[in-house]
Automatic annotation (TrEMBL), chains A, B:
<feature type="site" description="Important for catalysis">
    <location>
        <position position="193"/>
    </location>
</feature>
<dbReference type="GO" id="GO:0000287">
    <property type="term" value="F:magnesium ion binding"/>
</dbReference>
<dbReference type="GO" id="GO:0003862">
    <property type="term" value="F:3-isopropylmalate dehydrogenase activity"/>
</dbReference>
<keyword id="KW-0460">Magnesium</keyword>
<comment type="function">
    <text>Catalyzes the oxidation of 3-carboxy-2-hydroxy-4-methylpentanoate (3-isopropylmalate) to 3-carboxy-4-methyl-2-oxopentanoate. The product decarboxylates to 4-methyl-2 oxopentanoate.</text>
</comment>
<feature type="site" description="Important for catalysis">
    <location>
        <position position="138"/>
    </location>
</feature>
<feature type="binding site">
    <location>
        <position position="103"/>
    </location>
    <ligand>
        <name>substrate</name>
    </ligand>
</feature>
<feature type="binding site">
    <location>
        <position position="93"/>
    </location>
    <ligand>
        <name>substrate</name>
    </ligand>
</feature>
<feature type="binding site">
    <location>
        <begin position="283"/>
        <end position="295"/>
    </location>
    <ligand>
        <name>NAD(+)</name>
    </ligand>
</feature>
<dbReference type="Pfam" id="PF00180">
    <property type="entry name" value="Iso_dh"/>
</dbReference>
<feature type="binding site">
    <location>
        <position position="249"/>
    </location>
    <ligand>
        <name>Mg(2+)</name>
    </ligand>
</feature>
<dbReference type="InterPro" id="IPR024084">
    <property type="entry name" value="IsoPropMal-DH-like_dom"/>
</dbReference>
<keyword id="KW-0432">Leucine biosynthesis</keyword>
<dbReference type="InterPro" id="IPR004429">
    <property type="entry name" value="Isopropylmalate_DH"/>
</dbReference>
<keyword id="KW-0100">Branched-chain amino acid biosynthesis</keyword>
<feature type="binding site">
    <location>
        <position position="131"/>
    </location>
    <ligand>
        <name>substrate</name>
    </ligand>
</feature>
<feature type="domain" description="Isopropylmalate dehydrogenase-like">
    <location>
        <begin position="5"/>
        <end position="354"/>
    </location>
</feature>
Length: 358, 358
């Protein structure tokens, strides 16, 4: 059997520091991986004049999986949009066909105090948000700024975008979601805005059709505004949520913030063959970059997801997840999740503690 | 001076009960209003076969202001979309040109316990969300279900919608928002998704231009996913938020839920001449309709907003707002905001208490 190849894309801000720790953890597993690093985001622009340099995209395509840090930093804010760091993320998603974004929002019992929500509302929270990632208004053509061709503002300048979902796009993400629900509490909430949008009436109809293949899963439909409210009111009522790219962007971040510990949350973005890109749910936090205080656990847990979904090594994934639980139980905390009575550690110490706990 | 005419549209579910109390409060002010009632939503469909009957729309157009209850009930769920109750809301907004939706999210000190968030995070919350209400993907043409004309799914069935904002549409809502901020803490957050959407890059550019007219207001731009997170993390940091129709739908409901007392929150939807439609931020709650337990305060406070914005009677508005504060201080609570140690009252008792406190 060939060695599995992992593309390591550290990116900007705290990206390199946290990815370094995840790489240490991967290397401590005793498996033979081929790791190859390439610049992405601002670092890609700095090295090759583009946030997603050709060589980086090529590496990501060849690899069995991609471990991604984070992108974005102040000095790139004034670049024109097509050169800004976040274009790398959009480019990787589209070029690799990563249509299924899995974002668990889990609150570790030890960290319940970090949430802005009352402990009884969030402690033990364990929901999974599945966001479609290559369709919707993110990529829909046509789009641009033009002279309005019709309507009440005909003749004026206007900005416009197109929301689109094709039947097979909805079907494939629905299958991912129903299958994920089957492995959990067998409850799926499909979030739409069918009362207003044609795209999401269509979405709702197709999800309802796919449901026939999964009679053991309870399906509920919910409007996006109501979903945003229920996430605040009673987030533990959800099991798996599936939604489109735009609504998923908003809801998955809101859900992550409910836990108060976004520094703990991994994510996976998968293609049709379970190849994937794995990244922490948080951003590049340029304000604390280089200080050695960033929390590497979301990235380490992303590496665990990678082992499970793309590298077929569920046992190794569990080893990492248990090691993370252990360091939390030991009372080790980076600054973002620190509370009185626990031990504050830096990025490297936290990574080393996970390696030790393996 | 002519008598001012108010269209009363009670709607469905708890709508009639809560509007009745707001009407009692209006009548207790000692002003001469002409009140005329018409059916809307499911009630409109039941009476005239359409959620927004011609007579109801005519009345709303003639009136100086509209007091609206809520629409929606189980028996109308299976109607085809164009006949469902919520179409009445969309129809009124579009036909009356109600482009500016003002939704305060205020947490009364007495009700801090009702929130799912920790008291220190939300007590004293006082933010104002201004949502554009007649543009965006809500009304943008073209839309529908079709055979995909291009793209990776060409030839397949797809649902699609068009997001659009014209320059003058953005300008006018920006002016409303900056002026509202001037009357408050002089801080405005414009929420967009300029990193992905052309419409919202355009939005951001125009809002930045309009800012030149309001140098005393501090303007900040924030991506919608981050705004959803910051609302959960530190909602009190906001003063005024302005955003588009779709993002506003989601964020204003999330913000309302932060308070834990959505039964307390009014809203105003204004046209270019301060004519407006006023309604509670909550829905028609068919599960508790007719039980006499619904909270009428959001509707009563909506009537206060109506006096302030459309009827030029700010003093009367304040009288009502103070009366509401007084009944809360007296410890009166409807079931939705009840806590041990307070006095539980029904819809009528709460309305009567406000009248008495006037
Ligand atoms: C950076 C941005 C384009 C991206 C998105 O909107 O998808 C980010 O918010 C995310 O959720 O990964
Ligand atoms: C009922 C629905 C069409 C409406 C909307 O999406 O605008 C509602 O959610 C609201 O916010 O008033």
């Amino acid at each position: 059997q060939e060695k599995m190849k992992i593309a390591i894309l550290p990116g900007d801000g705290i990206g390199p520091e946290i990815v370094e720790q995840a790489v240490n953890v991967l290397q401590a597993l005793g498996e033979k991986f081929e790791l190859e690093t390439a610049p992405v985001g601002g670092a890609g622009y700095a090295a090759h004049g583009h946030p997603l340099p050709d060589g980086t995209l090529k590496l990501a395509k060849e690899a069995d999986a991609v471990l991604f840090g984070a992108v974005g930093d102040y000095q790139y804010d004034s670049l024109e949009r097509s050169l800004r760091p976040e274009q790398a993320i959009l480019g990787l998603r589209k070029n690799l066909g990563l249509f299924a974004n899995l974002r668990p929002a889990i609150l570790y019992p030890e960290l319940a105090g970090a949430s802005t929500l009352k402990p009884e509302v969030v402690s033990g929270l364990d929901i999974l948000i599945i966001r479609e990632l290559t369709g919707d208004i993110y990529f829909g053509q046509p789009r641009g700024v033009r002279t309005a061709p019709d309507g009440a503002f005909k003749g004026e300048r206007e900005g416009f975008d197109t929301m689109r979902y094709a039947e097979s796009e909805i079907r494939r993400i629905a299958h991912v979601a129903f299958q994920a629900a089957q492995k959990r509490d067998k409850r799926l909430t499909s979030v739409d805005k069918a009362n207003v949008l044609e795209t999401f009436q269509f979405w709702k109809d197709i999800v309802t059709e796919v449901h026939k293949d999964y009679p053991d899963v309870a399906l509920e439909h919910m409007y996006v505004d109501n979903a945003a409210m229920q996430l605040v009111r009673a987030p533990k009522k959800f099991d798996v949520i599936v939604t489109g790219n735009m609504f998923g962007d908003i809801l998955s971040d809101a859900a992550a913030m409910l836990t108060g510990s976004i520094g703990m949350l991994p994510s996976a973005s998968l293609d049709a063959n379970n190849k994937g890109l794995y990244e922490p749910s948080h951003g590049s936090a340029p304000d604390i970059a280089g200080k050695g205080i960033a929390n590497p656990l979301a990235t380490i847990l992303s590496a665990a997801m990678m082992l499970r979904f793309s590298l077929d090594k569920a046992e190794q994934a569990e080893r990492i997840e248990n090691a993370v639980k252990q360091v939390l139980a030991q009372g080790l905390r980076t600054a973002d999740i620190y509370e009185a009575g626990t031990t504050k550690v830096g990025t490297k110490e936290m990574g080393a503690a996970v390696v030790k706990a393996l």
